[in-house]
Amino acid sequence: MALKTDIRGMIWRYPDYFIVGREQLRQFAQAIKCDHPAYFEEDAAAELGYDAIVAPMTFVTILAKLVQLDFFRNVDIGMETMQIVQVDQRFVFYKPVLAGDKLWARMDIHPWTSVSAPTSSSRRTPATTTTASWCWRPTPR
What we know:
Blueprint: E1 11-13, E2 18-19, H1 22-31, H2 42-47, H3 61-74, E3 102-103, E4 106-108
Antiparallel strand pairs: 1-4, 2-3
GO molecular function: (3R)-hydroxyacyl-[acyl-carrier-protein] dehydratase activity
InterPro entries: FAS1-like_DH_region, HadA-like, HotDog_dom_sf, UPF0336/Enoyl-CoA_hydratase
Pfam family, one: FAS1_DH_region
């Protein structure tokens, strides 16, 4: 099934910034069972040289979902998103994310051509894998 709009090579910039909330970070860390004190306590983060509590690395998946929703709301690809398989996702970090940070995001869409598992279907579905959750342990600056 062909896409109505060729999105290969497209760069989508999220039109707004995202402010990282302190309580959001605490709730997220608790939900993914990351128990490092720097995710919860400002004193523990300060001992490591940070000005605020630190975000688990997978916290940015919240912003990534907002970017994806915005993209599909604004770009007519000619099919339902349930027909698309995401095969890769990558985040680029320039520094640790802290409570109070303003984050800007963009999504770069790259073509995907290889198949790593045999398939019994001859129907080609546009493909754009989600990374597994992990706990990053904050280290001193």
